[in-house]
Design goal:
five-stranded antiparallel beta sheet; about 425 residues; Heat Shock Protein 90; Beta-Lactamase; five-stranded mixed beta sheet; alpha+beta; 16 strands
């Protein structure tokens, strides 16, 4: 190949390389001036921050039913599992809102297994954008439980009040019919006084229980002398104890002090002593003692009475519950005394425990925070409540029939109606 041809080839190759360089520079320059595409954010600005501070359970679901963001309570309640809504009722509600864009609100009951009580929640679901749906879930379990307890309490109170009111009405009719018989009038009047006293005691305990059942801690606990409180509680049952020849003994450590409300502690301990006297046989012994450790004072009431069946121990602190409903008329019980004791213990940061054997007797222990010389002991229970100190929802277990000890004194032409 001669020199001319070589020169032409090199010139042609140089032109091609130059054109390639120019083209590459133009393409690079065009890319540099092209705006960078901005991806649309998954969540609107500020939503993630708002969800992080909400106390309620909140979750954001996209068009694929995937949970993009959820608050900590949502995971704690089991609403989210593997980035999906774990509750089918809630997931269906989300799909309905996505279809028509209408805000929906409903109540759900979430089962958590046999050993755990179900959750009662309210769910409010609303569209957040064309793609996203927001669900807010509030736990209403405590509110529903309080409402159920309140309904049961009102129903039980009405149920219980029928008995003394019915008895008084029946006795009043008997007095009217026996106007010409002074002896019968005197007997019926005595029965009316007894029923009136029972009604007064029932109403008083209902008022006390209504005041205590919030279990709110005491705001300003005072120093309470244990010896004086025990003496006061024993004095309240002196007449009943003497009528049955029962000796009530003050035993244990002396000079102790607790933190709390003196009247409420005396009320609770007085109920325990009254129960011990009422359910103990004639001529027996009841011991009221105080013992202490570093933080708590144990006030124990031990009797030699009929005892409590093991199957009943977990229910004896329920309102209006009686181990033997047939005996409550002879003992004058209302079924509220132990419930009052439980609420007093709770409001003082203590607990109440029970040991009992049928035919041998029972020991009730009321543990309350001790008052120590170098400062106030914390208002905290020493340990978790034992069986018997944490009752379930109270069912009505008593009878509202007019008592047999009233109808037995009524002339045969009178009918006993509830």
């Amino acid at each position: 190949m001669d020199g001319t041809t070589q020169a032409l080839l090199f010139a042609l190759l140089g032109a091609v390389l130059g054109a390639g360089v120019v083209l590459a520079w133009r393409v690079s320059e065009a890319q540099m001036h092209q705006p960078t595409p901005v991806e649309e954010p998954v969540l609107p600005a500020g939503i993630a921050t708002v969800l992080s501070v909400l106390r309620s359970s909140a979750l954001v679901v996209d068009e694929k039913d995937e949970v993009l963001k959820a608050s900590a309570p949502a995971y704690a309640f089991g609403l989210v599992r593997d980035n999906e809504v774990a509750v089918e009722e809630l997931a269906e509600l989300v799909r309905q809102v996505r279809r028509d864009g209408q805000i929906r609100e409903t109540e759900l009951v979430m089962s958590r297994g046999r050993a755990v009580a179900p959750l009662h929640v309210t769910a409010r679901v609303a569209p957040l954008s064309s793609r996203l749906v927001l669900a807010l879930v509030e736990d209403r379990t405590r509110e529903r439980r309080v409402e159920a307890i309140r309904r049961d309490f009102v129903a039980n109170v009405s149920h219980e009040l029928k008995t003394p009111v019915g008895a008084l009405n029946l006795l009043a009719e008997a007095v009217q019919e026996a106007a010409d018989d002074p002896e019968a009038v005197t007997r019926f009047a005595g029965r009316m006084q007894t029923e009136s006293a029972r009604l007064t005691r029932l109403v008083q305990q209902i008022i006390e229980l209504s005041r205590l059942q919030g279990d709110d801690p005491l705001h300003e606990p005072q120093t309470v002398d244990v010896d004086a409180t025990i003496s006061r509680s024993i004095d309240q049952s002196t007449i009943d104890a003497q009528s049955k020849r029962i000796s009530v003994v003050h035993d244990g450590e002396r000079g102790l002090q607790i933190l709390g409300n003196g009247d409420e502690v005396a009320l609770a301990l007085g109920n325990l002593v009254a129960n011990a006297v009422a359910y103990s046989p004639d001529g027996s012994r009841v011991v009221v003692a105080a013992r202490t450790d570093d933080l708590m004072v144990d006030l124990t009431v031990t009797d030699q009475g009929i005892g409590i069946p093991p199957a009943e121990i977990e229910r004896i602190f329920e309102r209006f519950y009686r181990v033997d409903p047939a005996r409550h008329r002879s003992t004058g019980g209302t079924g509220l005394g132990l419930s009052i004791v439980k609420h007093v213990a709770a409001s003082h940061g203590g607990e109440v425990r029970v040991w009992s054997v049928e035919g041998q007797g029972s020991t009730f222990t009321l543990s309350l925070p001790r008052r120590v010389s170098d400062g106030a002991a914390p208002l905290l229970p020493r340990s978790a409540p034992e069986p018997g100190s944490a009752p379930s929802a109270p069912p009505a277990t008593t009878s509202t029939d007019v008592p047999s000890d009233v109808t037995s004194d009524v002339p045969s032409h009178q009918e006993a109606t509830p």
